[in-house]
Specification:
The chain contains two helices and three strands; from the N terminus they run αβββα. It is α+β, with helices and mostly antiparallel strands and about 80 residues long. The chain has one domain: Ribosomal Protein L9, domain 1. Strands 1-2-3 form a three-stranded antiparallel sheet, with no helix packed on it. A hairpin with a 5-residue loop joins strand 1 and strand 2. It is globular, with a radius of gyration of 16 Å. It starts with a helix and ends with a helix. Bound molecules: FE2/S2 (inorganic) cluster. FE2/S2 (inorganic) cluster binds next to loops.
């Protein structure tokens, strides 16, 4: 099997959106492949997933709602507060 034949088809960029939730996770909608620190795909079971950006989750890379109790403030919220 050639290298090209083993490589999964890449989703079209228009099929994937990433939305930064204020003081919360990044919502990834669409067929994006999420890769772990080892470069291997992280299995996902839903068409929309939430990636933690507060660092407090117990189920990385997914958001487990800890941002609601650890006081996380997202950069865009902090910037708006400064402006
Ligand atoms: S963003 Fe939700 S637990 Fe980190």
């Amino acid at each position: 099997m050639s290298e090209t034949a083993r490589r999964p088809t890449s989703p079209r960029p228009a099929d994937v959106t990433v939305t930064a939730c204020p003081d919360g996770p990044l919502l990834v909608r669409g067929p994006a492949r999420i890769l772990g620190p080892d470069g291997e795909p992280v299995p996902r079971r839903r068409p929309t997933v939430a990636l933690c950006r507060c660092g407090g989750t117990a189920i990385a890379p997914w958001c487990d709602g800890t941002h609601k109790v650890n006081g996380y403030r997202s950069p865009e919220t902090l910037a708006a507060d400064d402006g």
